[in-house]
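Quick one: structure tokens for this chain, please?
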Amino acid sequence: MPMTRRSPHPGRFLPIHRSSLAIVSLLVLGSAQAWGAWSAAGVVKSTSGTVLPVVEVTVKDSSTYKTTTNDKGEFKLESSASVGSFIRSSKFSIQRSGDVLMIGYPGEGILEVSLLDASGSVLWNEHAALVQGAARARVPARGRDLGAILMVRLGSEVHSQVVPLGNAAGWNSIPAIAARSMAAPYPTLVFKKAGYADTTLALTSDISNGLAVVLRDTTTKKTDFVEDYRSECTIPTLPAVSALTNNAFLPDPFKMLDGTAVTTKAQWKCHREIVAAMLEKYIHGEKPRNPEKVEGSFSGNKLTVKVTDKGKSISFSVTITKPSSGTAPFAAVIGWDGGSIGGFNSLPVAKISYPITTIASEGSGRGKGLFYDLYGSNHSASELMAHAWGLSRIIDALMVTPAAGIDPKRLAVTGCSRWGKSSTIAGSFDRRVKLVIPQESGSGGVASWRIIPAFSDAQPIKSTYDEQYWTRQDFWQNFGSSINKLPVDHHQMIGMIAPNGLLVLDNSIAWLGPQVGYGSSMAAKEIFTALGATESITYSSVGGHTHCAQPTSQDHWVKSYMQKFLLDGTGEPAKMEAPSDYKFDRAKWINWTTPTLK
């Protein structure tokens, strides 16, 4: 018994024979483009490199094509028709006379004639009876001046041809090559997932495999992963040097400039920025923030960082060495000229070698290097602060260059000796660094300025000013003979790292002032304690070895801290580990109490 289908004309039913249903489709080739055969496949990830399942993948301005990514973030989407495979059948004929289509095809049945837009949506639909190989269908006014792709299906047989609507005499078929031209451009894919910014990708070829699509997380709060909180805080006018008074104690890290006590973590957030501003004004010079543009490109094992600011641009490269095991994106330790710490080769942690003398050179006079090319040779930043600025720009570049295979949210910084000084400052001034490992940094690094004169064999304060340009130009002039006038000290600087990880590696060489570093670390521990991060700071001093040659007895600390702060693992309990002759006279240096910040 034949089925029936309702005619588009009211009150009219047409018989449909199961074995002889033919469908004629006209696909519009007007302002909405039709596409030829295409397919696209790839993987969708977040900016941190995590694969994203259940991402909706569609075609722009289309309701026809749709899929979602699987649990591996993979997707595949393809068209159902191919311009290139269109078949012109000698059995099939069509002519247009005015607003009437004259359709010829062997057999009998009902032809469903449809005009489709580029997405496959039906613009109009008509039915026509195919009797003794002939049928007539009406073309509505809206379809008379459009080009089209005509397809006829009868059973399993498909006949197709591209036809531009010509004059009233009829349509002329065109070759498949011309059809491809009419069908360009290829569609644009749209990727959507709750909590991520919508992303589009325009296809450029018939077959696009191995696509890598990155979606930006929009749920992360603005302050969760930023260089610092300076833009959110009001920095009061800092006292002139002439207005400063002597204080032999290490400055109270929990007292604001107006004498008000810091009692909450919310207050600490901006108090930390005031401490940073004081370090810049009195010791290290200004760290430029928020450059106009930071770009990254990755090739081979090189990440090239391009920074544009103040109408100028500079570029430098760092070398990335991936671990032999694990899956990208990797955690990484950024080492000043490669770094010299050991103990983590078995971990899936990459190494990034940062050639810092290209940013601020040593031995060639103050104000030399790419940093000063960008900001001027008279910029107030010390060489150490310029190195810290460069680290922040590396992180910026990693954030926009997922091809580098490094997770910017799992980074450590390290350096030894003079590089230990600048890596300490770099880690203190960038909240995005999860672990700071200064090695034998001495005066100007971890060491607090006030404690240095108590140890006559330690590198003197003046050496940090004139051996190299490790402080701002007016530091010695302002504080050389009155270091106790400093309103801020380095126990506060390394306390800025909390609650992130700080592992201080030291050596019992007197010139390095290890007891100064120990005392400064003990005072900084009070800040970590106030923030509930006592397990985030360890000090370890081991003697009997060459400068910057880390003994294997410290390897376990490096491994432990990398596991805790870079790999979401567990590590050993924190410890202040030093020879028995290392003493910290708390009463001499601390006259304040440590709160528990709420």
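The chain has two domains: 3-215, 230-589.
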